[in-house]
Amino acid sequence: MRNIRFSLLCLASLAYTAAGAATTSVRLTVDAANPGHAVSPMLHGVFFEDINYGADGGLYAELVQNRSFEHAESLFSWGTVSRGAEGAATVESADPLNAKNPHYLRLEVKAPGRGFGVANYGFGGIAVKAGESYLASVFARTAADHPVALRIVLEDETGRPLGECRLEGISGKWTCFEGAIKSSGAATAARLVVLATEAGRVDIDMVSLFPENTWKHRRNGMRADLVQMLADMHPSFMRFPGGCVVEGKDLPNRYQWKDTIGDVSERPENWNRWQDAIRGQTAPQYYQTCGLGFFEFFQLCEDIGAEPVPIINCGMACQYQSKQLVALDQLAPFVQDALDLVEFADGAVSTPWGARRAAMGHPEPFHLKFLGVGNEQWGEDYFTRYGIFQAALKARWPDVKLIGAGGPGVDDGFWKLAWEKFRSEAPVDVVDEHYYRPPQWFLENATRYDAQDRSGPRVFAGEYAAHDGQPRRSTLRAAVSEAAFMTGLVRNSDLVVMASYAPLFAKAGAFQWAPDLIWFDNTRVYGTPSYHVQALFGRNRPDVTLPVAVEGPAVVLPPLPPASVATYGAPPLPPCKSGPLPAVFAAAGRDARAGEIVLFAVNPYPEPCSATIALCGAAKIGPAARAIVLTSASPDDGNSFEEPAKVAPREETVAVNGKEIVRVLPACSVTVFRIPAGE
Ligand code: AHR
Description:
By secondary structure, the protein is an alpha/beta fold. The protein is 17% helix and 32% strand.
């Protein structure tokens, strides 16, 4: 038995040891003749929430911030521009564009000079590329008795024009005008200037600028580089829209899907509950335009081959914050919203919501298979409400599998109650479990599902992440511990049918929550070590499990301090005693299409380990295999804009000798072996 002090300090101080210096030996025997269960095809997905500017200012490619003047600070991200002119810019609400978009900007020009108007500064600047085209659009009307025009100018941070278009024919009626602007240069902090060039009054609203090069060149589209990061993970599902955003800080603030479809000018802006949720990380002007709404979500899932997994509000606001509850006799509209969402996804085009989907350009159904009722709810109030949703949803949409909330944590009283309820009076298909815990917890819990009763509901590890250090960082150490845990998910994927790391995106300088999978700014993006772990598992998911025996010295770690496990006020359960850990965490399976055995081997410890991999029961092996390795010089290493690939997988060819591979598993590493093998 190896005694390893797996303290954070200890790991941080131990440098990576060269491959030849392995001090531990382990034998991994994969039994290819005895396949186990099918690996859940939904196992590795992504969790999307509009947190950390993940949607507006992030994945949603709109470059103008506060385009509809609906922020509390109504001219936030706007400034007045006067080019030798005299005029006033005021936010008004009389006779607006529509009732859901009640404010607009009035330009009252006394003397036009070379132009009077406003400039939008985007989300910390507008980033444009030389030679690329951008689509500008503005709703406008005038009080003049003749048609007027607006100049829309893209300028760099020094005021140098990069391109412009003219919007002609503005009349007394609100109308949307569009123009293309080709940028002559690159800029990271450009601004979009709207200029009136004659005296009089012009009202403007929904001032928008999108790159033409969105993902798949869609209008109202997504940032192509960020979607590519998602697509590269091969996610089998996408959870949306959260997360606490589903619940809202209070009920009026909850996510209401019907407000997120149709023409974007008719989607009411909602404030983002992450504005003030985290002390020290407030973002008072963080709003949700819902331009990335439910239609765009379904379409994105289709584009990247992921099953959509919507989560709906169940008549409860955030239980950490307002704790607001919808009375049971007022719950019917909430239940109807859930029923209608499925109809919007899948209903015939002759149904009201199926017709709305068709009108948005997608008459075919989106084939919704799962729906979550409530986000991170707990307690009796939840189960009463869940039961009402469950009865209505199963009656109308019996084939849609329901996901029920398991509470904010696991191994506490809320979680225990959830499982009791879901196993008895509140039938559910899948229980959503969340765990944000230290890296060691993930090692100790790699076997947590091995012995779980298979007769009850399935499990969705709906939000998880290893939280390393304070402030929490995305380190190799955290990622490797997640990988160790994920070997347990693969092994138990007859029970754990879905899993998603959370949160997904974070914008540099504008985040509320770390760690996250993907960091970006207005021009750049990189994946954290945890991103690479998710991608390694997503891209190498086998179809069926194979038994893998690990022989090597067991490892004993000092117990985690109780304070490292948050209980959110739930009644505590007796602490689980963690047993010795394996020398290597492993899971194996067969990828039938590739004709390969896939072996995940995770060495989370501070020493390299010499592994002999024996492959039994396969007719023909090799002659060579691939090893995809994620490691780095120090467990503390992470990625950054400066070093985006410091911790990234590297692929090597490894020799197969007979039916064995001998290979050093570096300290703090994940290795995915892909071994050609006949049945
Ligand atoms: O992922 C961040 C938050 O963590 C989610 O919004 C919430 O469900 C959980 O508490």
